[in-house]
Write a structure and sequence with these properties.
The structure holds 2 protein chains of 2 kinds.
Chain A: E1 2-4, H1 5-15, E2 20-23, H2 30-38, E3 44-47, H3 51-65, E4 69-73, H4 77-91, E5 96-102, H5 118-122, E6 128-132, H6 138-150, E7 157-162, H7 163-167, E8 169-171, H8 184-191, H9 204-216, E9 220-224, H10 226-230, H11 234-244, E10 248-250, E11 265-268, H12 275-281, E12 286-290, H13 296-299, E13 310-315, E14 329-332, H14 335-345, H15 352-359, H16 376-386, E15 392-395, H17 399-407, E16 416-417, H18 428-438, E17 444-449, H19 450-456, H20 460-465, E18 470-476, H21 481-490, H22 506-512, E19 516-520, H23 523-536, E20 540-545, E21 555-556, E22 565-567
Helix pairs in contact in A: 1-2, 1-6, 3-4, 3-18, 9-14, 11-14, 16-17, 16-23
Chain B: E1 5-14, H1 19-29, E2 34-41, E3 47-56, H2 58-69, E4 74-80, E5 85-96, H3 100-112, E6 116-121, E7 124-131, H4 133-143, E8 147-153, E9 157-160
Antiparallel strand pairs in B: 1-3, 1-4, 2-3, 5-7, 5-8, 5-9, 6-7
The chains are: A alpha/beta, B alpha+beta.
Chain lengths: 568, 183
């Protein structure tokens, strides 16, 4: 069937089962949006306030649903506005297909209006990217892009389509998704010995060796990383740690990879890890990291990290093995598959003395109460009490993010939407929008700080326009909290440019966007506000007064040994 | 820290726009400086073969290979060990020959190193030398006695000795002990 490039794009999106797109139109992508007009019954488009918000929304959609997120933007500034979102998705292995249009063929390379070399810019922050110059290749490339985004270790893929390609016609043959891998470019990629599509089947000898190591271990510790969440391997992980009776720490990206209230959970590990996790890491004899790349926020000092222990890394991406921390053994494979095989082969083990010792260590930080402001713990406990158990939580970056992950109990993959690797302030509201659009049956809350919220609060316009009932909790300590904390602890209280005691009034801001809000400084007020927010059915901003000098505890300095707490 | 040495990576890639920059940017963003790089079409249609020399220890060379394999235009990567591979480079030297004695001396050196004289002009000679590292280094050292006006090298190309080729590479073989049935 002959059809225009823009229509081929729509048909290909339908092939992939795409029903939601986040984006923002512009000059070069007009043909695509014109075609979308005819498809609006099948494909819902969410128009954000800014392309960055769209990119985070597509990312939040992907993280929370496990499906591939899709994001549209126009050329030039529209495209470069995506880049923070693309990098965020890349660092946290989130499957998103970004589709942008570039200037037409004759204008490429001439510094034309709104022209930018987007494939060049995004090369280091995408799994793969394409510049489509030939309409006959468009369908094939889109099929390949979706396959790449979700295969193996997921990640963002960018397709930059020349404007003329969206207007030119070509033959389009519908192809059901399951036949994609047997056709065209994908078939050629699959045929290569080096292709990155086949999930590596864990090696039987490697598995046996790990089983022996586990049996020989008296003090095992497990780290649950983001790979467990992306691989949706929560049930297998819970069974695995129950079977080997090992205390289990989570990385930030691993939250939701085990049952939040799993009796063996020791909380987060690393820079803001609990004492239980970090001390266990320094005294275990076997450390099994599942889907974890030992980032500098986890391992801190790669040379001294769990030096006394045998370290085992299980990861789907072979390039992560030994990248940051040198391991003693590793298995390349999908977390779900590896854990399933391990669970079949492992006997039920007991390490009572060890687990008792570790689990008796502090797993949660205690905060002093009774001031004129709320403590982070009070805010979070009240939220946890009043919101449904399966509420999706999106966060921005900074102190509030650490507090949320320390104090909430995440129970399933995709419940927490947070920018771990890239640390993108301003991620949260967009991600919450994506989370709610992808999971209309679940409550979605957005935990943010006054610094982060100020960055992308423009997306309140999107929240209002689509009537998305997201409750935003601003942990308002009138400062750029995490940086303030570092200045307090490391820079002799020289608070250089971190005072944020300034406009806007977040309650009035919410009202300006046609939403409601409330400023609270006691638990009673907070409870009332949450009840009101739940009942109102639209977006709501709760501005929570937090003490300026409140810190995230414990804390270990970057590059230090994992037990060298600056504060406990 | 293991010993830093010159590592040779042979990379088979799709012959497409942007692939070379993708490969070279990987090295810079991982913090490595490429010592030499040679690229040309390979024997399979629409593929190119890149030979890259980089200073790294063995562990990092393996990590780099694994990072390269993650790029979709990359068909295969092989770390070539100096003992099991042959390496050649073409270097052109333009040497100033102000008088007959100098000219004769350089012609003699060219003969000894089996270099070709590919251009002569009043006052200059241009030599082409093909060889491994020791040969090109050898002639370069001797030519230091004279005035080398400019030189250009192609960068090393390398092949494995014997039966092995880049095509029997299956990602992990002989490099990373991932076991037999990984991919």
């Amino acid at each position: 069937m002959q059809m225009k490039g823009a229509k081929i794009l729509m048909e290909c999106l339908l092939e992939q089962g795409v029903d939601t797109i986040f984006g923002y139109p512009g000059g070069t992508i007009l043909n695509v949006y014109d075609e979308l007009y005819d498809y609006k019954d099948q494909i819902k488009h969410v128009l954000t306030a800014h392309e960055q918000g769209a990119s985070h929304a597509a990312d939040g959609y992907a993280r929370s649903t496990g499906k591939v997120g899709v994001c549209f933007a126009t050329s030039g500034p529209g495209a470069t506005n995506l880049t923070t979102g693309i990098a965020t998705a890349y660092m946290d292995s989130s499957p998103v297909v970004f589709i942008s249009c570039n200037v037409a063929d004759g204008l490429i390379g001439k510094d034309s209006f709104q022209e930018v070399d987007l494939t060049g810019i995004t090369m280091p922050i995408t799994k793969c990217n394409y510049l489509v110059k030939d309409v006959t290749k468009l369908a094939d490339i889109i099929r390949e892009a979706f396959a790449i985004a979700k295969s193996g270790r997921p990640g963002p893929v960018l397709i930059d389509i020349l404007k003329n390609v969206t207007a030119e016609t070509a033959e389009y043959e519908p192809l059901p998704r399951k036949l994609h891998k047997a056709n065209g470019r994908l078939a050629a990629l699959m045929a290569r010995s080096s292709n990155n599509f086949k999930a590596p089947e864990p090696d039987a000898a490697d598995i046996d060796r790990l089983v022996d190591m586990i049996k020989a271990s008296e003090k095992p510790l497990v780290i649950c990383g983001g790979g467990v969440v992306r691989g949706r391997a929560k049930a297998e992980m819970d069974e695995f740690i129950r079977r080997i009776d090992a205390p289990t720490a989570i990385t930030m990206m691993g939250a939701g990879g085990i049952e939040g209230r799993n009796p063996l959970a020791t909380g987060m590990i690393g820079m803001h890890g609990s004492q239980a996790s970090n001390l266990a890491c320094a005294s275990c004899d076997l450390l099994i990291a599942v889907g974890c790349r030992f980032s500098d926020r986890v391992a801190l000092n790669p040379n001294s990290f769990a030096k006394q222990a045998k370290i085992v890394q299980i990861d789907i991406d072979r390039a992560e093995i030994n990248k940051n921390v040198k391991t003693d053994h590793h298995i390349v494979g999908d977390a779900k598959r590896v854990l399933t095989i391990l669970n079949e082969k492992l006997p039920e083990l007991k390490h009572d003395a060890w687990t008792e010792r570790i689990l008796s260590l502090p797993r949660e930080t205690v905060y002093e109460e009774g001031g004129e402001t709320l403590t982070p713990k009070q805010v979070l406990s009240t939220i946890a009490e009043l919101m449904p158990e399966d509420t999706i939580v999106s966060t921005d970056v900074g102190q509030h993010q650490m507090w949320a992950i320390q104090h909430f109990h995440f129970d399933y993959p995709g419940q927490l939407l947070t920018s771990g690797g890239f640390g993108t302030m301003g991620f949260g509201l967009g991600a919450a929008i994506g989370g709610k659009v992808g999971n209309p049956d679940k409550a979605v809350i957005h935990i943010t700080g006054d610094g982060s919220f100020r960055m992308n609060c423009n997306e309140l316009a999107t929240v209002q326009a689509y009537g998305i009932p997201i409750i935003t909790f601003v942990f308002n300590n009138k400062t750029l909290g995490m940086v303030h904390q570092w200045q307090t602890l490391i820079y002799n209280k020289r608070y250089s440019e971190t005072d944020l005691n300034r406009a806007p009034d977040f309650v009035k801001l919410a009202e300006a966007y046609g939403l409601s809000g409330k400023r609270v400084s006691t638990v009673e007020q907070l409870r009332e506000a949450i009840e009101e927010a739940k009942a109102c059915g639209h977006g709501y901003v709760i501005d929570c007064a937090i003490e300026t000098d409140e810190m995230v505890r414990p804390m270990v300095g970057g590059g230090s040994h994992i037990t060298q707490f600056i504060i406990c | 820290m293991e010993e830093m040495k010159k590592q040779i990576l042979a990379v088979l890639v799709d012959n497409e726009a942007g692939v070379l920059s993708q490969i070279s940017r990987l090295f810079s963003r991982k913090g490595y400086n490429i010592e030499s790089l040679a690229v040309g079409t390979a024997d399979l249609p629409n593929t190119s073969r890149i030979t890259i020399e980089v200073m790294a220890d063995d562990d990092h060379a393996r990590l780099l290979s694994n990072q390269l394999r993650k790029l979709f235009p990359v068909h295969s990567v092989k770390l070539l060990t100096p003992q099991k591979s042959i390496r050649r480079e073409l270097v052109l030297y333009k040497v100033r020959t102000p008088d007959n004695d100098t000219r004769n001396a350089i012609i003699q050196i060219a003969n000894i190193f089996r270099a070709n004289i590919i251009d002569v002009s009043v006052g200059t000679l241009t030599l082409a030398v093909v060889g491994g590292e020791s040969k090109t280094e050898g002639i370069e050292k001797i030519l230091e006695e004279f005035e080398v006006m400019e030189l250009v090298r192609t960068g090393s190309v390398a092949l494995e000795r014997g039966q092995e080729t880049i095509y029997d590479e299956t990602k992990e073989k002989g490099e990373f002990n991932y076991g037999k049935n990984v991919l």
